[in-house]
Amino acid sequence: MHIRKQRLLTPGPTPLYPGALQAMMASDIHHRTEDFRRVYQAALRDLKEVLGTSHDVLVFCSSGTGAMEAAVSNLFSRGEKVICCSAGKFGERWVEIARAFGLETVVLEAEYGRAVSVERVAEALAAHPDARGVFVQASETSTGVAHDVRGMGEVVARTEAIFVVDAITGIGTMPLDIDGWGLDVVVGGSQKAFMIPPGLSFITLSPKAWQRAETANLPHYYFDLKKEKKNAEKGESSWTPSTALLLALGAALNYIKQIGMDKLIENAQLLARATREAVRELGLELFAQDTPAASVTAVKAPAGWDSGLIVKEFRNRFGAIIANGQGVMRGKIFRIAHLGYFDFADIFAIIAGLEIILNAHGFPVRYGTGVAAAQKVYAEAAFAREAALA
Questions:
Q1: Whole-number pLDDT of residue 274
Q2: What backbone phi and psi angles, to 5 degrees, belong to 324?
Q3: 325 lies in which domain range?
């Protein structure tokens, strides 16, 4: 009660892997030396391994939005038509970036809490055979909904369009077969499942995407994919990199390789399932009406409540930082994250805290009911695993 540790329970930034923090202490190296080249080449090599792709992987010193912008500015020309799937704030960002660079946008909009279906993408491509790209979020963290990127990839692969996926919160929380599913461009970010501070973005590019880069004529300077690839082949970044973050990334990637990407994904999915079961047991309603994402669980505030009260109470009572809704959903939902360096003890604690907060403000729940639901998910998974190993 008197000592409160701050706990990040947001879908970015996320809790930091301790080994990554330690690695950052060795960041006093020059970026044009052989020492740094070894670090950089190892990070690029390990990123490809962890992401499970043979495609080129490039790194920028930016938030994930920087790599999103790079995908638009390097692979398209002014006036070209693109299809943007918009099911939340980050889908709206794809629309905003595309329009900022003068692209003609066909927007497939789903109400918040819903996902854009594969069928709608197929219909849009049939109606607009001149579309040069399709943009989507793998995981729409503003609403807690996941998209069927595998199904969409199969549809897009049959056309001349390239498939551009914001997987910033999808990586490490859901399966993503980049090569096998036809994901031509995949964007990631450091402060999500990679468990390090904000400041690095990643982008993968298929041969089909690189062919598009040969004819694209939109302006770009810092976010230059061709230049970045040329320099990466020499073990260097085009511009002054964040040596500290790249050292952290190297440590985090080693950790992910030890766990296995499939286990990192399973961890997020189990935590998400436990959270969903717990909040339902407490009489609360999930916001996602379609396939829920494993990156974050979005929960509706009780009737008549402002979700900001729950966010504030978590911070003031327990030092825990959860996320409010974004845009028009602010005050209506709260969001609890599961991606990266989270474990079941985090979920047990957050659900116990939620029970206290609900009771304190007149929404009666029986203490321990939500926690018990989360414990059941843990026990079933853990005992099944132990039995399989016996």
A1: 98
A2: -80, 175
A3: 7-13+261-389
